[in-house]
Amino acid sequence: MALRELVERYALHVDRRALDDLVELFTPDGVLLVPRPPETLTPTFERHGRDAIRAAMGSLDRYDATLHAVVGHVVGHVIDGADGSASATGVVTCLAHHVLDDRASVWALHYDDHYANDQGVWRFSRRALTVEWIEERPVSHLRRGP
Questions:
Q1: Which residues of 12-46 are buried (b: 16+ CB within 10 A; e: fewer)?
Q2: Secondary structure, 3-state, 76-119
Q3: What is the domain range of residue 32?
Q4: What is the CATH number of the domain that holds 41?
Q5: pLDDT at 88
Q6: What pLDDT, in 10s, does the model give residues 80-117?
Q7: Contacts of 15 (CB under 8 A, 6+ apart)
Q8: What is the pLDDT of residues 2-12, one digit of tens each?
Q9: Per residue in 113-140, pLDDT tens?
Q10: Residue 55 has pLDDT above 70, yes or no
Q11: 23, 82, 112, 116: least surrounded by Cβ within 10 Å?
Q12: How many other C-beta atoms lie within 10 A of the C-beta of residue 77?
């Protein structure tokens, strides 16, 4: 359940642009790998550490709104270390809606995650985003403001 909450908090913090809270979901040396659509849909651009991840996520400010809907989360292997540490892997499927100028770009995507238990708290140690496809749609109504 803690890993599912981690994944859901990531989506919430992205949509609220709560970047300080978002980067705390990563280990201090965490890695975020993202594609550069439409040139690439596979994770080719790496950001290492919380400051670099914050800078990368700041690019979302160009959108009028976003909504990330987590539609699936499967946890792979959980490994408990002799020192009380733990790590795990997971795959998260998501539909990410990005609205700009009354158009929605909807990305069907998945994350390949590596998690680390950092002093009793689960965090991302590595998160790689792969886009499966992108749809463009009109937006007829958009709530503006906070």
A1: ebbbeeebeebbebbbeebbbbbbeeeeebebeee
A2: EEEEECCCCCEEEEEEEEEEEEEEECCEEEEEEEEEEEEEEEEC
A3: 2-138
A4: 3.10.450.50
A5: 94
A6: 776 767 899 999 999 999 999 999 999 999 999 999 99
A7: 65, 66, 67, 68
A8: 999 999 999 99
A9: 999 996 789 999 999 999 999 999 999 9
A10: yes
A11: 82
A12: 8
Q: Indicate the number of domains in the chain.
A: 1
* Interatomic CA distance for residues 20 and 12, integer angstroms: 13
Average pLDDT, the chain: 94
Tell me how far CA of residue 66 lies from CA of 16, 43, 48, 89, in angstroms: 8, 20, 24, 26
CA 127 to chain centre: 7
Radius of gyration, alpha carbons of the chain: 16
82 is a domain residue: yes
Residues 6 or more apart whose Cβ sits within 8 Å of residue 40: none
Three-state SS at 140: coil
List CB contacts of 5: < 8 A, sequence separation 6 or more. none
Which H or E run includes 56? helix 50-57
Q: What is the pTM of this model?
A: 0.92
Q: Is residue 59 part of a domain?
A: yes
Q: Rounded to an integer, what distance in angstroms lies between the CA atom of residue 111 and that of residue 129?
A: 5
Residue whose tokens read 């009354």: 102
